[in-house]
Fold:
Amino acid sequence: MTTKKSSNWIKTAEGETLRIEAHLAGFAFAPHRHDTYTLALTTTGVQCFNYRGSLRYSLPGEVLVLHPDELHDGIAGTDAPFGYRAVNIDPVDVQNILHGHHLPFLPNGVTGKPCLVDIAQRFLTEFQRPLEPLEYQDLIYDFAMALQKATTIHHKHTTANYHAIKMAREYIDDSLDNDITLDQLATITGYSKWQITRDFRTLFGTSPYRYLTLRRLEKAKSLMSQGIPIAQVAQDCFFSDQSHFTRQFKKSFGTTPNIWNKLCDLKK
Structure:
């Protein structure tokens, strides 16, 4: 876990669950997309972000819930820095609870609903210790139920669709270093390749290719944290070259690998 604090910094919590704390000023992150939910608790200042065509504001104590694959950025709402703590929640974990329902979506991205604020605080208050496995599973269940209750979309796909797309996702997880085609996924699942594309987006919030790219990028972050040079990381994570890796990284995290390393102080 990093301890360095300057005008702009990011540190990570203890444990395997990716939880970060950030302190940022001015224009923090360029427009980008995640393939996960982002659950964030604003701690200081005014956190602003463009989301679904509008500028949103979050004050201390309020919660952001950003849907997978939704374009957003990060900006200080005043001349003062803003701070937040955040956890990325895999939609796969949410689908394991919802079993085929559409992923819940919070339209404006910001809420003060006590149930979601409570869940965010339980996820994000204690950075000095890892979350226990059962604790994390309880939090995921509470998050999925609370978010679904806060939305109005409860359409459910068939169980067969859910299992086919789950099978496709698991194949991608096991094949990060290989070229993957929709034809392969169709053969493996016994399901139409275009239905795979459609239902993958509905159930997991992003396309199969974006999911593959983000899995490679998460692997890249892990390698970067070990001090491996960026050019080597790009090669090890199956990007065509360092430029391709940098473009994909910025598109997904709103900053370049070099700047991310500096913010996180990963090499210390």
About this structure: Residues 1-5 have pLDDT under 50 and may be disordered. DSSP finds ten helices and ten strands in the chain.
